[in-house]
């Protein structure tokens, strides 16, 4: 029997990453941060001087990533070692997010990351965080959740997140970047960002993170009545 998967998709700034890391810790399940993989491909390609138009070379990078993930505390970024070097923070800036969104539109890059993403599905279960977890990578996921929030609210949250990390950004520029990235992720031909037909959609615009955690836990309990752990 394969391990159960909870697929959580949506754009950035919806609380998705934080909620996924809480769920993974609460359930003691594995966590896949698929966005990190696209960021790592973009970062690795850049450091190797690969032309962003060279899809075959980028696909090769995606297939052969020498990457190790180090689990972290809930609410913190997963640790990333690329060829043994700690790049956890280097992949978290907005430039890398934009570059990730660009390489993510390339079919050979997506194909190159597919097996690696699916290999995270191990007992006792997997929380899969991304854009196409419920539609493409784990179409048979036991539970699919899609998170949305208004672009303004997402920009504000992202601004705070980056500021807390000491990364200086301009809110108006951030909103423009978010809007551009959403358009690219939603309109691409392959695996566009969209809810699976059987996903439960939550709008998190006016909902704080504690309430969202409660909602997610309730949704998980409804789906998996055998889960008896306390909150
Ligand atoms: O979640 P994130 O901001 O780390 O993701 C960075 C980019 O990677 C995002 O703009 C689109 C791409 N991505 C994707 O295409 N598919 C995924 N499953 C996850 C991320």
Structure report:
- The structure is a single chain.
- The protein is an alpha/beta fold and 231 residues long.
- The chain has one domain: P-loop containing nucleotide triphosphate hydrolases (Rossmann fold), CATH 3.40.50.
- A hairpin with an 8-residue loop joins strand 3 and strand 4.
- Helix 1 packs across helix 9, helix 3 runs parallel beside helix 5 and helix 7 packs across helix 8.
- The longest helix is centred in the last third of the chain and has 17 residues.
- 2'-deoxycytidine-5'-monophosphate binds next to helix 2, helix 4 and helix 8.
Q: Output the structural class.
A: alpha/beta
**The level-1 CATH class:** Alpha Beta
Mean pLDDT: 94
Per DSSP, what share of the residues sits in E-state strands of 2 or more residues? 5-15%
**Euclidean distance between termini CA atoms:** 27 Å
Major sheet strand order: 2-6-1-7-8
- Small molecules (ligands, ions, cofactors) in the structure: 2'-deoxycytidine-5'-monophosphate
- Put simply, the count of helices is 9
Number of domains: 1
CATH architecture: 3-Layer(aba) Sandwich
Q: Based on CA inertia axes, which overall geometry fits?
A: globular
| Residue runs with pLDDT of under 50 for 5 or more positions | none
Radius of gyration: 17 Å
How many strands, which pairing sense, and closed or not: the largest β-sheet?
A: 5 strands, parallel
CATH level 3 topology = Rossmann fold
């Amino acid at each position: 029997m394969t391990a159960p998967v909870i697929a959580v998709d949506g754009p950035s700034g919806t609380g998705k990453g934080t909620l996924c890391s809480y769920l993974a810790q609460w359930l003691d399940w594995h966590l896949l941060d698929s966005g990190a993989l696209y960021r790592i491909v973009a970062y690795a390609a850049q450091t190797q001087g690969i032309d962003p138009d060279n899809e075959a070379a980028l696909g090769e990078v995606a297939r052969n990533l020498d990457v190790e993930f180090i689990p972290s505390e809930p609410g913190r970024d997963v640790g990333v070692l690329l060829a043994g070097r700690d790049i956890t923070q280097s992949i978290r800036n907005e430039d890398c997010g934009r570059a990730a969104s660009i390489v993510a539109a390339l079919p050979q890059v997506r194909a190159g990351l597919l097996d690696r993403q699916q290999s995270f599905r191990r007992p006792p279960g997997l929380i899969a965080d991304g854009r196409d977890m419920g539609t493409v990578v784990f179409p048979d996921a036991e539970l699919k959740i899609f998170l949305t929030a208004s672009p303004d609210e997402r920009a504000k949250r992202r601004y705070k997140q980056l500021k807390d990390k000491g990364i200086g950004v301009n809110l108006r520029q951030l909103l423009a970047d978010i809007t551009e990235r959403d358009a690219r992720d939603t309109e691409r031909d392959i695996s566009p960002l969209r809810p699976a037909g059987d996903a439960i959609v939550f709008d998190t615009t006016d909902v704080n993170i504690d309430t969202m955690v409660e909602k997610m836990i309730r949704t998980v309990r409804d789906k998996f009545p055998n889960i008896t752990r306390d909150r």
